[in-house]
Amino acid sequence: MTVDDEIGTAGRLRLLAAATALYLRAAPAAAVLRGVLTVAGGIAPVAIAWCTKVLLDRLAHGDGGTPLWPVAGIAGVATGWAVANHAGRYLEQEIARRVTLRTQLELFTAVSRPPGLAELESPAFHDRLQLARQASQMAPAQLTGAVLSIAQTTVTTVGFTATLAAGSPLVAGLVLLSTVPALLAQLRLGRHRSRTLVRITPGLRRQVFYAELLLDMRAAKEIRLFGLAGFFRDRMLTELRGAQAAERDTDRLALRVDGLLAVLAGAVSVAALAVLTTRVCAGDGTVGDLSVLVAALAALQGTLAGVVAELAAAGESLSLFRHYTAVTAAPPAAPAPAAAPPATGAPVIEFRDVWFRYSPAHAWILRGVSFTVPAGHSLALVGDNGAGKSTVVKLLCGFYPPTRGTILWDGTDIGTVDPAALRARMSAVFQDCMAYEFSAADNIALGDLTALGDDRRLRAAATEAGIDEALDRLPRGFATPLTRTFNDPGDTDDGVALSGGQWQRLALARAALRDRAELLILDEPSSGLDVYAEHEIHRRLTALRGRRTCLLISHRLNAVRDADAIAVLNGGVIAEHGTHAMLMRADGTYADMFRLQAGGYQMEPVQ
Ligand SMILES: Nc1ncnc2c1ncn2[C@@H]1O[C@H](COP(=O)(O)OP(=O)(O)OP(=O)(O)O)[C@@H](O)[C@H]1O
């Protein structure tokens, strides 16, 4: 990840324009109104200072009457200013809410855009995303706030500089000059802060990871059984301490810089006051002049310090906002995808000399895999742990492109087709299938969102997976929340946790809901199923044969023996291929594995 030094002025201006555009898009009317109020707020203190001067001069040289106009002016401007401040704060909050909605939409649209998984496996991507999420919450409001505030303080600054310069050009020049070192120091400090943030982000992500782990229901059993809570808590605190140490260093640097700048500002004030007082004592000016000049001096120093602080904060926000734009930037236009092959009811799937590794730094997982699954046939893929079976599934789903070779769907290279178009024609149960903390009905409906609320279709899919009766027995049937950690307002605490096998059946129901899918992928669908469920699933798969092409992965070889063909994946290649009978006759790896498993059941004589 690069740091902000490399952005350059043009880059900063582009980022500023992007942040302002985002702010204006999110809440155009509120943003304009806030701008008007901000500028008006900049004129107010100058107007009050002038009214004060007129009031004091009238009192000093007056005719004994009450100078009503200056008093009314001060009261009117002060009241208007106070109201404008409150209105500005409300508008700022409202704009921040709308910007948050907009940035969440843009960020999560961008994050879901890549069709594959490679990006989600990159720590650098997650670090940048973390910075982008931080930026999305703060940077647009901070940047536009800084621009408006600078606009406001510039109006005030010009007013007070003119006032002060009219009384003493020397003092005005001195004060203006003293802001140069302050500005340079604060800009450097801002850059230092943003570099620190980039540096501590990986540690902060880990800290959040440990915090979530300590609350994760899936981890809770192991954490308690193995006594890991203290270990994870210590690691969480170590990460937090590391991040805090870096922040502390930055804060100490800021303390030193701010201290020096305060001494400089104090010295300038003393010198300026000495010049002004000496002049009035020498008869050059009235008491009113002195009062307005002293007020202008204090205000000018204050507003200049404000401008400097805002500029530094804006620089810091720009550095952060660049991560947001990097994540949300539209990808370069891809060549138009080829038309998806016409729906045939069941496709021919072919792997043609497919090589694959997860990255150049990783070992080869597939080293020239070739096989064909004829239309409507089922292929069972078997092999040792880590042989690459699930990797074949991930390639077939288009989650990664093959490093070399081609995967064909009815003769069309799937790499040339819009992945979403093909995925709409597949259904799958993955090895690590999801347990969503929603109702049972919604858990099934996620397989095809057009079925949300369609009780008939959801029940049919549940029946297909043999989970309908178990769901009917839940406190609220299909509507029962499958969670013990979330409750909707008004819900009683009747959420249910399913068993591992029941979750797996629910994943099968989700897959079954896509009843028009032409390709069915089942990666270890029955590892948690009881023998009846497994038998039933394989009976149904056999019934489906001819209507769909199936890729089936299982370590239970008895469950795959009826597949049209069985392929043994070993050493990154298809080592054996044929029907169960053929492979048993060949007496190779498959036959060994099958006999070993079957032997396990036959150790004890069956009564
Ligand atoms: N996202 C990934 N990044 C890097 N390596 C990976 C990734 N996913 C899997 N691997 C590696 O690829 C190899 C094959 O994994 P895969 O999950 O395909 O095996 P499998 O045959 O399905 O195993 P099992 O029978 O245990 O489910 C393993 O060595 C694994 O470490």
Automatic annotation (TrEMBL):
It is a multi-pass membrane protein. Residues 36-316 form the ABC transmembrane type-1 domain. Gene3D superfamilies: ABC transporter type 1, transmembrane domain (1.20.1560.10), P-loop containing nucleotide triphosphate hydrolases (3.40.50.300). Keywords: ATP-binding, Membrane, Nucleotide-binding, Transmembrane, Transmembrane helix. Its main location: membrane. It is found in: Cell membrane. GO terms for molecular function: ABC-type transporter activity; ATP binding; ATP hydrolysis activity; ATPase-coupled lipid transmembrane transporter activity. One of its GO terms (cellular component) is plasma membrane. The keyword rRNA-binding does not apply. SUPFAM superfamilies: ABC transporter transmembrane region, P-loop containing nucleoside triphosphate hydrolases. Residues 349-596 form the ABC transporter domain. The chain crosses the membrane at residues 22-48, 68-88, 257-278, 290-313. Pfam families: ABC_tran. The keyword Transport does not apply. This is ABC transporter ATP-binding protein. It comes from Dactylosporangium aurantiacum.
